[in-house]
Amino acid sequence: TVTAEPAGFTQTAHLSPVLKQATPVVVDHARGSWIHGTDGRDYLDFTTGIGVTSTGHCHPRVVAAAQAQCAKIIHAQYTTVMHEPLLELTAKLGPLLPAGLDSVFYANSGSEAVEAAIRLARMATGRPNIVVFQGGFHGRTVAAASLTSAGTRFSAGFSPLMPGVHMAPFPYAYRYGWDTDTAIDFALDELDYLFATRVAPDDAAAFLIEPVLGDGGYLPTPPRFLQGLRERADTHGIVLIVDEVQAGFGRTGKFWGHQHAPGLTPDILVTAKGLASGFPISAIAAPTALMAKAWPGSQGGTYGGNAVAAAAAIATIDVIADENLVENARVRGEQLLAGLRALAGRFPAIGDVRGLGLMAGIEFVIAGSGGRPQPDATAAAAVQRATTGRDLLTLTCGPAGNVVRLIPALIVSEDEIALGLDRFERACAEVFG
Ligand code: PMP
């Protein structure tokens, strides 16, 4: 039932074969939830450039803001001359950030911002070790890849990686075949065991965790686990870094993913992706007292906090507020997850449906294999290809590549979710009969 790699991936000729193409689509133009291909087809986009174009493709207000800024100044290097869009963006971000995180540093990509957060945590604590959680994805630069455990494909072959990174289990209840509480108890216990056996807590600079594991399989981090990290961070003077690159900016139905853990405040928040609707800009936020522990000049970069990207980010924040997009993500996310759960019963290969807001993951397993669920990457790849064939763009994720993820724009409508669900169901029917 599994179709072969479709022919026609010719657009990659002369582009490095290192780029692994998920679809053969070449985009002509895109609007809202739709990508219009040079093949004349209209694709419903449930990938949003890997969770980036949250206000939809080419939102008119984002386009207008970027165009207007282009005509004023495109690149005002922020350590040479400061520019107004960055000042305005910082003022607008302020009320959205967790209480006390009143200082912001800008870079270009998620990976760079993660690196900035690690650098800051090490400088602030004078400690070497970073504790990460299995399945986490934090980027592709060598340091960010060192912090990543969402699959060996992200680090195999170019070791040695950055030292001082230690990995603790993530409460992946479905994989263990446990209920969530058992998985949380296990993961917190193993963390304490790591502290007892390998990493003295007083040598730990930071915890680094995503509120929802992204590339690692679309697994919401249980609130009680995050709270367990917060308690240990407070006890031992460890910096709690939340990587909100994929889960932040409204995607999960709250403005920040960590807000699903009531009362939790991180020490450093990392954001990128949805921040500017597709323009490259990222940021970390921390209390001024923490930020000030880094020497002036120890962080920076040529392009960080680009003026056009900052203008697009300002427009993005306005659009999210004016169009009530965080609430839309919550409501449409519930519709999406309910629809997926309803169809899961029809296909035994669907082992788990999970997510938060508009981050939905469907985990494919070998049906009836008994014991722990056995990942079925072939099924996930076949479904992903079949959705493309039905003009619905989706992606896979997870260490084994056996999770299909759906990441619609925050502006997605009820009808578009219904259409996406219909196409997804037909794709499953095509693959599994
Ligand atoms: N952190 C998370 C949680 C991510 O999802 C990603 C990108 N998928 C990154 C970091 C890295 O971001 P970038 O690709 O912009 O470097």
UniProtKB/TrEMBL annotation:
Transferase as UniProt keyword: yes
EC number(s) reported in the record: 2.6.1.19, 2.6.1.22
Pathway(s) annotated for this protein in UniProt: Amino-acid degradation; 4-aminobutanoate degradation
Keyword match DNA repair: no
InterPro entries: Aminotrans_3, Aminotrans_3_PPA_site, Class-III_PLP-dep_AT, PyrdxlP-dep_Trfase, PyrdxlP-dep_Trfase_major, PyrdxlP-dep_Trfase_small
SUPFAM superfamilies from the UniProt entry: PLP-dependent transferases
Pfam families, sorted: Aminotran_3
Required co-factors: pyridoxal 5'-phosphate
TM ranges: none
Keywords: Aminotransferase, Pyridoxal phosphate, Transferase
Catalytic activity: 4-aminobutanoate + 2-oxoglutarate = succinate semialdehyde + L-glutamate; (S)-3-amino-2-methylpropanoate + 2-oxoglutarate = 2-methyl-3-oxopropanoate + L-glutamate
Molecular function GO labels: (S)-3-amino-2-methylpropionate transaminase activity; 4-aminobutyrate:2-oxoglutarate transaminase activity; identical protein binding; pyridoxal phosphate binding
PANTHER family assigned to the protein according to its UniProt record, in alphabetical order: AMINOTRANSFERASE CLASS III (PTHR11986), LEUCINE_METHIONINE RACEMASE (PTHR11986:SF58)
Annotated protein name in UniProt: (S)-3-amino-2-methylpropionate transaminase
Annotated organism of origin: Gordonia amarae NBRC 15530
Name of the gene encoding the protein in the UniProt record: gabT
